[in-house]
């Protein structure tokens, strides 16, 4: 395959608040057994891409632990295979000022590669995409850069990194960055395809002029100056944007919808994750579980409805859980009640405690907290 990949692991970290205080957005748990990065890595594996660089800047230990040797995605950790591009490894100090800055720090990785084309993907947008179809469309278009876009995301209130207005002929008529575009616009999914040598050339040029934002300083600037031909590829399946706590909460619960699950986890584009051997779920005699996604190793003796319960969660007798996202090894003690909450890993809710949020403002409890 003449296509390599780059994944930006820390995009939107700051917008997730407590959920990404100690982890990258790419390593954020999702859907009872997955991490966000599983979707990007699986898409690349399913698209026959074996050379992938994961660009990180901080809090990447849990990400590296999750990916391990890369065998679950049929990738080999090491040069020419799956590579972690950390600030330490690239000799870069401080935080990246944008994607172009991150790419410039990894310029040796890009320069030593042999593939003609490169696909870049954000770690916070979840989908099951065949990048080979995007590449074929990119080549046919004759464009310098192809941006994968999705309709139904822009709504006049959500601020998107890059909004694109398309004409009836499918050509780009307008672009806007960091803008709450209305529903006429398509939202960029953070997936870009272009020639590797062109990316290297444009990245060096941009950074030398103190330009660090990929969407603003290369894509939009190139479009309005006529310096680059930009093409939009319309993605027509489910795409989940985990770019805020509210979106993360709603996207987890969206998996309870059969249509969403079917499009995101269909047989042609398998989503892989790290395999962990767990005991089966235990359901107590008094347990009442309704419309929930339940991970392996859970011990359920109380009641849970319309919730996502990750591996090893314990719901004790008499406890009430509704409309919640509860991560690994959290414990809800007897008589406790949690509603519209996101409980991070290893949280313990004490006996008789009540936590109640709303769908628009879920209560978030940080990892390891005792309430």
How many separate helices? Answer: 10
**Major sheet summary line:** 9 strands, mixed
Beginning-to-end CA distance, first to last residue? 51 Å
Q: Give the structural class.
A: alpha/beta
Provide a descriptive summary of the structure in words.
This protein is α/β, with parallel strands linked by helices. The protein contains 10 helices and 28 strands. The chain has helices at residues 37-46, 61-67, 87-90, 99-105, 107-112, 131-141, 196-208, 214-225, 245-254, 258-264, and strands at residues 3-8, 29-30, 34-35, 52-55, 82-85, 117-122, 125-126, 145-150, 160-166, 172-179, 186-195, 230-234, 240-241, 282-283, 288-290, 293-294, 299-300, 303-305, 308-309, 314-315, 320-322, 325-326, 331-332, 337-339, 341-343, 348-349, 354-356, 363-365. Strands 1, 4, 5, 6, 8, 9, 10, 11 and 12 form a 9-stranded mixed sheet that branches. Strands 14-17-20-23-26 form a 5-stranded parallel sheet, with no helix packed on it. It has a 5-stranded parallel sheet with strand order 15-18-21-24-27, with no helix packed on it. A hairpin with a 3-residue loop joins strand 2 and strand 3. Helix 4 packs across helix 7. It starts with a strand and ends in a 6-residue tail after the last strand. The relative contact order is 0.13.
């Amino acid at each position: 395959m003449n296509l390599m990949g780059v994944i930006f692991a820390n995009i939107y970290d700051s917008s997730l608040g407590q959920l990404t205080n100690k982890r990258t957005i790419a390593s954020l748990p999702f859907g009872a057994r997955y991490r966000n990065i599983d979707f990007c890595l699986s898409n690349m594996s399913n698209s026959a891409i074996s050379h992938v660089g994961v660009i990180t800047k901080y809090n990447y230990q849990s990400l590296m632990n999750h990916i391990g040797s890369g065998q679950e995605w049929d990738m080999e950790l090491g040069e020419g295979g799956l590579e972690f591009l950390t600030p330490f490894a690239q000799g870069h100090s401080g935080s990246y000022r944008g994607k172009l800055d991150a790419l410039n720090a990894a310029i040796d990785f890009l320069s030593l590669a042999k593939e003609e084309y490169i696909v870049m993907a954000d770690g916070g947008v979840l989908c099951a995409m065949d990048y080979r179809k995007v590449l074929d469309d990119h080549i046919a278009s004759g464009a310098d850069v192809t941006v994968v876009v999705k309709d139904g995301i822009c709504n006049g209130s959500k601020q998107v990194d890059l909004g694109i207005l398309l004409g009836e002929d499918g050509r780009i008529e307008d672009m806007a960055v960091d803008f709450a575009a209305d529903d006429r616009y398509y939202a960029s999914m953070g997936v870009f395809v272009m020639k590797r040598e062109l990316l290297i050339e444009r990245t060096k040029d941009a950074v030398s002029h103190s330009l660090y934002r990929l969407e603003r300083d290369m894509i939009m600037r190139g479009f309005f100056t006529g310096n680059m031909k930009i093409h939009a590829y319309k993605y027509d399946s489910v795409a989940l944007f985990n770019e805020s706590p509210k979106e993360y909460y709603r996207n987890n619960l969206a998996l309870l919808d059969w249509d969403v699950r079917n499009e995101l986890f269909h047989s042609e584009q398998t989503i892989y994750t790290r395999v962990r051997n767990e005991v089966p779920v235990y359901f107590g005699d008094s347990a009442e579980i309704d419309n929930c996604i339940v991970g392996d190793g859970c011990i359920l003796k109380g009641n849970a409805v319309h919730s996502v319960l990750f591996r090893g969660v314990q719901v004790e007798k008499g406890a009430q859980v509704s409309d919640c996202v509860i991560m690994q090894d959290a414990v809800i003690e007897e008589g406790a009640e949690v509603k519209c909450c996101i409980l991070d890993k290893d949280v313990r809710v004490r006996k008789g405690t009540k936590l109640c949020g709303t769908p628009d403002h879920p209560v978030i409890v940080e990892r390891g907290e005792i309430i």
